[in-house]
Amino acid sequence: MNEEEILRQIGMLLNERHELLQKAQRYELEDGGHERIRAIGVELEHSWDMVRRYRAKRANGLEPDASKAA
């Protein structure tokens, strides 16, 4: 997965989390919704960490290796 793909994934996760949080505010969240919100948070942290690693390598003149970014 390259940086662009990771950023796309982050966008999708943020949209999903936003929808779930809106449902929670309206008391319409289905079973497992709160667990999914927490899981999305973990996925977002991991994804942003991968983006930071890509950017740090690039800033140091290295070519980010997708196979080692995860």
List keywords for this structure.
single chain, 70 residues, mainly alpha, 3 helices, 77% helix, elongated
Please characterize this protein's 3D structure.
Helix content is 77%, strand content 0%. It has one domain (3-63). The N and C termini lie close together (9 Å). With 70 residues, it is mainly α. It has 3 helices and no strands. α1 runs antiparallel to α2.
The count of helical stretches stands at 3
- Average pLDDT score: 92
Structural class: mainly alpha
Give the number of DSSP strands: 0
- End-to-end CA span: 9 Å
Which residues sit in consecutive blocks of at least 5 with pLDDT less than 50? Answer: none
Main sheet: strands, sense, barrel: none
Which H/E pattern describes the elements? HHH
The share of residues in helices is over 70%
Beta-strand portion reads under 5%
Give the count of structural domains: 1
Describe the global form.
elongated
| Radius of gyration, whole Å | 15 Å
In summary, what is this structure?
77% of the residues lie in helices and 0% in strands.
Show the helix and strand layout.
Layout: H1 3-25, H2 33-59, H3 66-69
Helix pairs in contact: 1-2
